[in-house]
Structure formats: C-alpha cells, structure tokens
Specification:
binds protoporphyrin IX containing FE; single chain; 508 residues; Cytochrome p450; five-stranded mixed beta sheet
Length: 508
C-alpha cells in the first residue's frame, strides 16, 4: 500500500513537473508551424519551418538557379519567395509589379532600411552617421557634378596605380597578376584620390583597410544571422573586427584632417585652399560637433558604396577584353581618337560609345546582384495582383533573369560588346542606350528615384582605367578565349576570385 502511494505521488509530481515542459514544447511547435502572413506566397524550394533553413543554405550556392526557376514559373508576372539565412526575400517577376515597387511611395518601401537591415549599418556606422547620411547626400549631388573637375586628378592617379601594380618592362614576355586583387588595388587607389586625396590614397594600410572593411561587414552579417538581435551590440563589439578597423581608420585619417584644419586656419577659412575632394566637402558639411570617429565611418561608408562595385566591374571587364582580343584594337582606336581631341577628360570619356556599350554588356552579364530594387516594406502593402506584403518584409525585383530573357535581349547568352552600340546607331539616339541609362529591363544600377547616383562617376572611372590600360598594355588570359567563371553567393554575382590576367607592354 505504502509502495503504491509512493508510486502515485512520484507520478503526480513528475506529471506536474512535465506540464511546463509540455507547454514550452507546444509553444515551440506552434511558433514553428503557425500560419504566417507570407505563407500564401509561393516558395522556391522547401518552405517548412526547418527545411527552409536547408533551402537558405542551398540559396547561398544555387541562388542563380532558384531565381531563374521562380522567374520561369511566374513568367507572365507574379511573386515568389526564397529563403535567405535571416529572412524571406519576396521577389517580383514582370514589369508591372516591378514598376509598382519602383514607384511606391517612400513611406511604403525603403532602400535605406533595407541597407540597415542587411548590412547592419546601425552597428557598423552608428546612429549619428546613418541617421544623418551627409556622405550619401554628397555622393548624390556634389560628386556627380564634380566629375569633370576631378577627372584629370583621377587620370593622374591611374598612371601611378597601374605603374605600381602592373609595372611595365620593355620585354615581350607576359607577366601574370591575380586579376581581382590587382583590380581592387588600382580601383581603390584611383577612387580614393577624390575621396581622401593624395597622399593617403596611396597608403597601402589605408587601401587595405577599405578593401578589408567590406569583408568584415559581411562576416558581421553572417554572425548576426545566428544570434538574437539584443546580443548584436555586444557580439559586434567583442567578436568582430569592425571596432578595431574603425580605430585604424581614425589613426590614418587624423593627420590628414589635422593638416586640412591647419590649411583652413592659415588661409583665414578659405575653403578653396583645400583639395577638391570628398573629405573637404564633408568637412564643410558635417555638424560642428562631428568627431574623428564619425568622420572616419563616413569615409569608410563612401568606400563601401564605391570600391567593390567598381573593382568587380573592372575585373569582369578585363576578363572579357582579354578573352575577346578582337575588341582591343577597336576600343584602342576609339580611345586614341577621343583623347587626341579632348585629352583625358570627362568630355573624351563621353565620346567612347563602343567602350560604353562593352561596359553595359559586361554589367548585363555581371550586375552586382541577381535582384534589384532591394527594399523593406515600412508598412503593409498590397500589390495589384492581390499579394499582401506585411510591414518589415524584404522585397526585390528579378534582375539577372530579365537580363538573360531572350524576349528582352535576343540571343542573351551571347556576349555581344556591340549590342547597345548597334541600338545607339539604329535609333540615332545614343543617350537612350548608354550604360548609365536605367530601365526595368536594365537593372544593374537599380531604377527610379534610388537608382545608383554613383553610376556616372563609376562609368567615367571605368573608362579612364580601361582606356589607360589598353593604350599601354597587351592583356591575355592563361586559357585564351575563356572568361574565368563567375562566383555566385546568394544573389551576389562576383568575378572569379583568383584567376590571373597576363600583361606586357603594348606591342602594336
Ligand atoms: C559599377 C559600379 C556600381 C554599381 C553596379 C552600383 C549599383 C548600385 C545599385 C544596384 C544600387 C541600388 C539602387 C536601387 O535599389 O534602386 C546602388 C545605390 C547606390 N550607389 Fe551604387 N553602384 C556602383 C557604383 C557606385 C559608386 C561609385 C558610388 C559612389 C561614389 C555609388 C553610390 C551609391 C549610393 C549612395 C547608393 C544609394 C542611393 C540611394 O540611397 O538612393 N555607387 N548602387
């Protein structure tokens, strides 16, 4: 009797102890399987609460195929979703829906919020910088207006950067350099001539800091995907390189800023005594209490926007030029003629229509992202096909699938450097087909009011670098005629990471 009682009391006390466990388990299962607002949007790949994580890992390596699958399934216009590690990405297919996203009011969809969410700009740049993005405003306004005035300095920097990273000898033998690493160095030096000026733009420590910073931001993103939001500040501070990189940036920037302050004092506040570059424009525009820390973060921010996009496009361009040797004499001739007429100026770069068409084709194949118009919904929104998008959802429009659609670009898999040049000649209206002209069918720079404001600058810098390279160098690939394969990560399109380009002094 005693034993029965003991067993019963043991049972009741265990059952009692199990109740909270069962409740937690049930809540967990409910949290996993409860209906969610995005459930009604078709998914590419598995969409279960656990299997979608496997699918997110697949998307890292098969992003291109999964987006293509969605594009084909909803070819006549529709909406699907794909998982990325920390969220669903809702993807639009078709001009009508993409145009609704492009033209939606600012309080409905936000690019800024998408960047903050994806790149954790709140942690990386701090509230003072991202809530008051003077550097972005300057990129959108002052930088584009100053292209003409800045081009001679950039060309000067081109000469020295190529000489440093691809030194020429008189011999006929080829030398090999890793294409991406070299392109990154050259592009970052040239770009920084008009960001922080000479001599900091040639400081290897500063250049490598900027090149490294975006990789650190990427690592931070991957780490933040795995932890709850409240832990981000502490993990970011203790377990990522961002704080030490900012400190290094401050150490490198301080002497330059001190020198500029002294120039201003010595010239009785004459701003024209300062170099004409982003750093001087920033000094003139930031609040009086701006610190070295925030100024450094702004400069790093300008570099994040500019240098990888330009250096990746430059790398892709070198691969396609080296693989298509017949283009080289044609582009050389075009550059020689323009430069003979106008020198290495913005006017001359504006006359390079074949090179422009080549660059546009390079970006059609290799736009930085397979989707474009990346936004976050700031409030609930319903597209015209009835799809409901709740506040906080990430949304984008297909880009690469459009660029590879035969109904948009005939024979899309063929790289045709003259594709857009032929359109310019056909229509007699070159401007409509330039690389900087965006549309819902040409999305490497986005489209609409947030279309990349740096694209005019980027096109000018790329033409300067390619023009200088072709007039002075022969280039070739280790496997002639074969463009080294792109690398895909999620929706990002990257050039081959290690392939060499061969070079020697121009022989003809
Ligand atoms: C080949 C080079 C480049 C490519 C492919 C590129 C691509 C893009 C894309 C796709 C967007 C988003 C547009 C949208 O969602 O509607 C963007 C935005 C932006 N880009 Fe670029 N970009 C390049 C070069 C540059 C350069 C050189 C700068 C600055 C000097 C720059 C500054 C910006 C800024 C500030 C934004 C945000 C615009 C806004 O908030 O409205 N980009 N870029």
């Amino acid at each position: 009797m005693e034993t029965v009682h003991e067993i019963r009391s043991l049972f009741t006390s265990s059952a009692f102890a199990l109740i909270p466990l069962i409740a937690v388990g049930a809540a967990f299962v409910w949290a996993l399987w409860k209906p969610r607002p995005l459930d009604t949007i078709p998914t590419i790949g598995p969409s279960g609460p656990l299997s979608s994580y496997i699918s997110a890992v697949q998307f890292m390596f098969r992003g291109r195929e999964m987006l293509q699958e969605g594009y084909q399934r909803f070819y006549s216009g529709g909406i699907f979703k794909v998982p990325i590690l920390d969220r669903w990405m809702v993807v639009l297919v078709g001009k009508k829906l993409s145009d609704e996203l492009r033209s939606a009011p600012e309080d409905a969809f936000s690019l800024d919020q998408a960047l903050v969410d994806m790149l954790h700009l709140d942690f990386v740049f701090g509230k003072k910088v991202y809530l008051n993005p003077i550097h972005t405003t300057l990129m959108k306004t002052r930088m584009t207006k100053a292209i003409g005035a800045l081009t001679p300095d950039m060309y000067d920097e081109c000469i020295q950067a190529f000489e440093q990273h691809m030194p020429l000898t008189d011999g006929k033998e080829w030398k090999a350099v890793p294409c991406l690493a070299t392109a990154r160095q050259v592009s970052t030096i040239v770009n920084n001539r008009i960001v922080v000026g000479y001599p900091l733009c040639r400081d290897p420590e500063y250049i490598n800091l900027n090149l490294r910073f975006i990789i650190d931001m990427f690592q931070l993103r991957m780490m933040f995907c795995l932890i709850p939001r409240f832990m981000e500040p502490i993990v970011g501070r203790l377990a990522t390189n961002i704080p030490s990189q900012i400190r290094l940036g401050m150490r490198l920037m301080k002497p330059v800023l001190d020198e500029r302050v002294k120039i201003l004092e010595d010239s009785d506040g004459d701003w024209s005594a300062l170099p004409n570059d982003m750093l001087s424009w920033l000094m003139a525009s930031v609040p009086k209490d701006e610190t070295l820390d925030t100024m450094t973060r702004r400069v790093l921010g300008v570099n994040v926007a500019a240098i990888h996009t330009i250096s990746h496009t430059f790398t892709h361009s070198l691969f396609y030029l080296a693989a298509n040797q017949e283009l080289i004499p044609v582009i050389r001739k075009e550059v020689e003629k323009a430069v003979a007429e106008d020198g290495w100026t913005k006017t001359a770069m504006g006359k390079l229509y074949i090179l422009d068409s080549f660059l546009k084709e390079v970006l059609r194949f290799n736009g930085a992202q397979a989707w474009s118009l990346n936004r976050i919904a700031l409030k609930d929104f319903t597209f015209s096909d009835g799809t409901f998008i709740p506040e906080g959802t990430s949304v984008a429009a297909c880009a690469t699938p459009v660029h590879m659609d035969p109904s948009v670009y005939p024979d899309p898999e063929a790289f045709d450097a003259y594709r857009f040049y032929k359109m310019m000649e056909r229509d007699g209206e070159a401007n409509q087909h330039l690389v900087v002209k965006t549309s819902l069918e040409y999305l490497p720079f986005g489209h609409g009011s947030h279309a990349c404001p740096g694209r005019f600058f980027a096109a000018n810098q790329l033409k300067l670098m390619i023009g200088h390279l072709l007039l002075n160098y022969d280039i070739e690939l280790e496997t002639p005629g074969v463009v080294p394969e792109q690398v895909w990560f999620e929706a990002a399109v990257l050039p081959h990471q290690t392939a060499n380009v061969l070079y020697r002094k121009r022989q003809t």
